[in-house]
Amino acid sequence: MDHRATDRHSGHESPSAAIVDWIRWVGPRRIAVAIIAIAIGGAAVWWLLRPAPPVADAVLTTIPIESLPPGPAVVPETIMVHVTGAVTSPGVVEVDASARIQDVVAAAGGALGRADLDAVNLAAPVSDGAQVHIPAIGEVPGLASGLPITGGPSTPVNLNTADLAALDALPGIGPSTAAAIVKRRTEVGRFVSIDDLLDVPGIGPAKVDAWRDLVVVS
């Protein structure tokens, strides 16, 4: 005898009876697995589609460009310097930005034998676009920076009384040669003639001839 419930009017199986039959056919375990799968899928969909949480504490601040601190100055790694005078290869050389005049001379192939290096401050720094002139012995030197050439002191320098500064003002002389002149007159005595300068290390006939109108002895 079939115990399934039927509709009294139509004779068909009722919906509740159909559900019961389906559950019996599928089995409780399969139904439980399906429910869990549906739940997990729904949770995943909700997680992906959930609205972003509001940012309550974020504060957007716009800093004007003019109020920002200036960036570090860009320092060039190399500079270009024009070298003239008594060097092996006069012309424009490229040297390190921290170079000194002695580095510039080396970049130009080195000084010639006739170069008067006492007339130049080899330790002086150089800048981009500067001109460095290395005078020859007896030449009226220009300034290492490329400024106009000077012609020495306006009045003759007394070799027996001049201090280091006055002697250093002579063309073609540097601090070391000026100190040698003072040392000579201290150790040997007063200069009797201008030619006595030949006894000073670093001074040759060309320098003496160039100074005849610029120095006196008395």
Summarize the helices and strands and which ones pair or pack.
Layout: H1 15-26, H2 28-49, E1 78-85, E2 91-96, H3 101-107, E3 131-134, E4 157-158, H4 164-168, H5 175-187, H6 205-211, E5 215-216
Parallel strand pairs: 1-3, 4-5
Antiparallel strand pairs: 1-2
Q: What would you note in describing this structure?
A:
Helix content is 30%, strand content 10%. The chain is α/β, with parallel strands linked by helices. It has helices at residues 15-26, 28-49, 101-107, 164-168, 175-187, 205-211, and strands at residues 78-85, 91-96, 131-134, 157-158, 215-216. It is built from six helices and five strands. It has three domains: 15-49; 79-150; 151-218, DNA polymerase, domain 1, CATH 1.10.150.320. The strands form two sheets. Strands 2-1-3 form a three-stranded mixed beta sheet, with helices on one face. Strands 4-5 form a two-stranded parallel sheet. The longest helix has 22 residues, at 28-49.
Summarize this, please?
The protein has 218 residues and is an alpha/beta fold. It has helices at 15-26, 28-49, 101-107, 164-168, 175-187, 205-211, and strands at 78-85, 91-96, 131-134, 157-158, 215-216.
